Amino acid sequence: SGGGGGGRSGGLSPGPVVAGEVQRIDVNPPKGTRDFPPEEMRLRNWLFNNFKEVSRLYGFEEVDFPVLENEALFTRKAGEEIKDQLYCFEDRGNRRVALRPELTPSLARLVIQKGKSVPLPLKWFTVGQCWRYERMTRGRRREHYQWNMDIIGVPGVMAEAELISSIVTLFKRIGIKESDVGFKISSRKVLQEVLKCYSIPESLFGKVCVIIDKIEKIPVDEVKKELMAAGVSQEAVQQLLQVLSVKSLTELEEKLGSGGEAISDLKQLFSLAEKFGYSEWIQFDASVVRGLAYYTGIVFEGFDREGKLRAICGGGRYDRLFSTFGADDIPACGFGFGDAVVVELLREKGLLPDLSLQLDYIVCALDEDLQGPAAMVARVLREKGQSVDLVLESKPLKWVFKRAARNNAQRLVLVGSSEWQRGVVGVKILATGEQYEVKLDELM
Ligand SMILES: Nc1ccc(Br)nc1
User: Which of 186, 225, 379, 383 has the fewest CB atoms within 10 Å, measured from its CB?
Assistant: First the structure.
């Protein structure tokens, strides 16, 4: 959703500056950002209203945070892309600030700030714009909106199962089926258990996961090199990469043994999926790691089964994030769901909704000195909850009918002199052409 459109004049490249004339500004939004003209805004509102309705159905409370945050929220030392692309600067008070690249750190900050005043578990959601400063070489967007749902204070995988259920509900609401998309599910405890066998320090865990997450984006030898540079032995690297290619929970159990938390979490999650009714939507995929350093357990991502698009959404458990902000750890999990990839998917599937403007009335005075009575008509209708496009200046009837058609007005009210003298106005039902006169207080 979102994007520019043809302006009133042609090209936007400024012509020569003539003395006394103002050079035309660039009317496009900054590189990598989008405008939302009415049609795009209707699609965005439709999508966000679905996000919010699902959040309401799941009993989540809406929260919000500033787009501008203290840079320190995002300066994790794990080599994440999100940090390399931080949209950050020093403000006039010499503070290091950043346009948030994600929402979870802000949420964690607010939870810590609220402390014991907000009884756990918390189920919070938000829809917010997130930013990255990426060299335009790849021509990618620099902003998108994310729907985030987080459950704070529940250590068990019922929380992850509930979150995935909410996303399935969203997909169903917008017409996307399990034959269109799926969820790849794994747990970072798989990697943790391998690393423990090679006594790799916990402090390296986040960085190792971030490197492994690049496995499908850069050559595997590069991944190996980065892992070894980070301090992982060659043997451990081999084991890590091998475990990522495991194809089933059974095979994983053979590899890791049945006593570990990774297997028990995953088995429980797949069992719960049966009860939630979304087993057909999920699959175990050991290669899912996700690129954020703070995930510690179950991780998942929504993908399009045709494999044409980037991940639709992603999330997981982050039980150690709070202590990175100097607070006591609280078990937590959540996901982010962007506004762009899902719209690409809907477009691909021919599922974009038809969201033309819906107007109840267009009201027009038939001559200049009837503008006041026309305003009265508009007031009466609006007080009854009717949407009214009041024509604000003298216009030929042809113009009024054209505007009524373009704005999908259901009825046209014409305020004419002789009718007004008789205490009535003319109403035309535009779909049928039927027309009648009605007293002002009988208007509806
Ligand atoms: N984190 C992030 C922010 C903005 C965009 Br576009 N993509 C990812």
Answer: 383
34 lines ligand 1 (CB under 6 A): no
Residue 439 has φ and ψ, to the nearest 5°, of -70, 150
CA distance to 168, 280, 282, 405, per residue, from 274 (Å)? 13, 9, 10, 50
Give dist(CA 362, CA 377) in Å, integer: 10
Between CA 361 and CA 378 the distance in angstroms is 9
Nearest Cα residue to atom 6 of ligand 1: 143
CA of 109 to the centre of ligand 1 (A): 20
Q: 141 CB less than 6 Å from ligand 1?
A: yes
With contact defined as beta carbons under 8 Å apart, do 290 and 213 qualify?
Answer: yes
Note the pLDDT tens digit of each residue in 255-312: 988 889 999 999 999 999 999 999 999 999 999 999 999 999 999 999 999 999 999 9
Positive or negative torsion for Cα 37, 43, 47, 48: positive
- Tokens standing for 242? 């091998």
Examine the pLDDT at 197 and tell me if it is beyond 90.
no
Per-residue model confidence as pLDDT tens digits over 343-370: 999 999 999 999 999 999 999 999 999 9
Instruction: Say how many Å lie between the CA of residue 1 and the centre of ligand 1.
Output: 15
